């Protein structure tokens, strides 16, 4: 065997070993990434989750607003990647309590019964205003005495939260916004930033973020700004002092 042939064989062997090692590293990285996502979303292989939305009030039949439907499609891709199974349920259908399976609750808290119940129990520091008879300030958030009024098509707000009922329980994710376009924006933010959120808050941590959707009439759900991490005030009971401060601001 000549030296040239030996060099070719050695080079080919080295290339094969390198490719095998690279594939093994890439596979291991992919498995770790998937495992982190499964822990963050509470979706181990074969688990069940539920996507809860409300009905389109403009339709005579059971249907989902377009932006909400697109938001649910984004969540469905996450569920599929985690190897879990999903069910879509309307907000006014009797469902079990939270914690037994992962839940994604998407909608307008002034019309979405289950979302409103979750916010009352899990985000007591947030007030969602139903609006007056003319609809003024409908959906306005009040958090720690600060009001976040919607300006339809210009500035709208949405809360994105991951909350748990206790150790070992599955999380509930809330996308509670002032218009359907904000729900889609919040889900996009969750999907795009899931790795960063998992690093910051941990795979078992709770958070509540206030997001602002800017100029949705021109940009749809694409232009989103983080206003603040409101986890602490949102999860704290709204005491008399906070209520008095909010009333003073109204005056």
Termini separation (Å)?
Answer: 95 Å
Radius of gyration: 23 Å
Number of strands: 10
- Given the C-alpha coordinates, what overall shape results? elongated
- Total domain count: 1
Helical residue percent band: 40-55%
Low-confidence stretches: 240-251
Number of helices: 8
Mean pLDDT: 82
Q: What share of the residues does DSSP label as strand, in percent?
A: 15-25%
Q: What spatial order of strands do you see in the largest sheet?
A: 2-1-3-8-7-9-10
Reading the helices and strands in chain order gives HEHEEHEEEEEHHEHEHH
* Largest sheet geometry: 7 strands, mixed
Helix vs. strand class: alpha/beta
Describe this structure in words.
- 42% of the residues lie in helices and 22% in strands.
- The model is unreliable at 240-251 (pLDDT under 50).
- Helix 2 runs parallel beside helix 4 (180-192).
- It is of the alpha/beta class and 251 residues long.
- This is Secreted protein.
Record the SSE blueprint.
Elements: H1 3-41, E1 48-53, H2 66-81, E2 85-90, E3 102-107, H3 113-122, E4 126-128, E5 141-143, E6 146-148, E7 155-163, E8 172-177, H4 180-192, H5 194-201, E9 207-214, H6 216-219, E10 224-229, H7 231-235, H8 240-250
Parallel strand pairs: 1-2, 1-3, 3-8
Antiparallel strand pairs: 4-5, 5-6, 7-8, 7-9, 9-10
Helix pairs in contact: 2-4
